[in-house]
Amino acid sequence: MDKILDREVAWRIFAHEFNRSNMHVSEGDERAPNYIVTPTGVKCNRLFIVGVVTEVENIGKDNNLWRARVADPTGVFTVYAGQYQPEAAIFLSEQDIPAYVAVVGKARKYEPEDGSVYTSVRPEEMNNADEKLRDRWVLDTAQRTLERIRLVEDALKSGLSGNELKEYLQKKGTKAVQIDGVTKAIEHYRDLDKVIAELKKAVIHAIGTVALDRQAMPQAIEKHANEGEVLLFGNNESDKSHIEEKVTTAAPIQKEPKELIADIIDKLDTGKGISYSMVVEAAQKTGISSDSIESGIKELMDEGRCYEPKIGVLRKVG
Questions:
Q1: Sheet holding 34-37, edge to edge
Q2: Which of 116, 170, 179, 192 is 20 to 30 A (C-alpha) from 148?
Q3: CB 314 within 8 A of CB 269
């Protein structure tokens, strides 16, 4: 990805945050870059994502517009590739679903007449990836997101706004692009403290989905995040090793229903998929309620950990 255009920064952003971004700004004339401002103050023109393609659909006439769903552990990005992205369109048309992919693309928004805002990605480049790269992206994105969360929380705590907030952040050594983005986010987003709290939970959840010890990691990271002791792994390898050691030696906790369902799918699916009804039956035998089974399967699909190749059949990813 190093060869990608040296223009706007390609931000690492989780789908949870990107899909809740409804602020759009344009600076300068019609040729100037357009930005989507996220709740953590990212002025996003381009982004870099790694996830699982769970669905590809040809929605254009003459096979010239493809829509794909690319899932990370927090949600799903919508990716469109058409005549102006021919290489990406061909790439999507030839994909065997599911597949790990890396995407660098433009952040786009669609705002219908009812006032809703829908975000999407127009790919500049798409490449095949693997689970290791996806997991590394999740941890990198988690660290950067938590850093931005800390900055927004500090700005909110200051009680300042406008130029006073900009001066406050400037004195703390914050980068100019972050100062501008955070100031705009605080002015635009209602109940930003609640939005940030939900995002923090999504980040903790994302870390847990790629952790070697999936039962211990979410609890340990949540403790650190809530107490403000660390952002994730710190900025050096010694910090990272120290925290990883604390995390992996933490006392195990009971698996949540979704993870039990994931284990069932992993055990029953030998590569050709397993019927939805068999998963439900197996899950019910473990004592999971029908509502929890339904919501758990939906979450697993949203995270790109399983998909539905055809109605009534579930198949694991990886």
A1: 23-26, 34-37, 43-44
A2: 116
A3: yes
Site of tokens 């406008």: 162
Would the pLDDT of 158 be above 90?
yes
The answer to whether 100 and 134 have CB atoms below 8 angstroms apart is yes
**CA proximity to 104, closest of 126, 87, 120, 83:** 126
**Secondary element (H or E) of residue 302:** helix 290-302
Give per-residue pLDDT as tens, 37-86: 999 999 999 999 999 999 999 987 766 899 999 999 999 999 999 988 99
Residue 18 has pLDDT above 50, yes or no: yes
Tell me how far apart the alpha carbons of residues 149 and 232 are, in angstroms, rounded to a whole number: 12
Q: What is the pTM of this model?
A: 0.73
Q: What is the pLDDT of residues 163-173, one digit of tens each?
A: 999 999 999 99
- Domain residue extents for the chain: 10-130, 136-248, 257-316
CB 56 within 8 Å of CB 88: no
CATH 3.40.630.90 holds for 257-316? no
Model pLDDT for residues 135-150, shown as the tens digit of each residue:
999 999 999 999 999 9
In angstroms, the CA 300 to CA 259 distance is 9
Choose the CATH number for 10-130 among 2.40.50.140, 3.10.100.10, 1.20.1560.10, 3.40.1190.20. Answer: 2.40.50.140
143: CB partners within 8 A, 6+ apart: 231, 232, 233
Q: CA-to-CA distance for 267 and 249, rounded, in angstroms?
A: 26
Token couple for 66: 């493809």
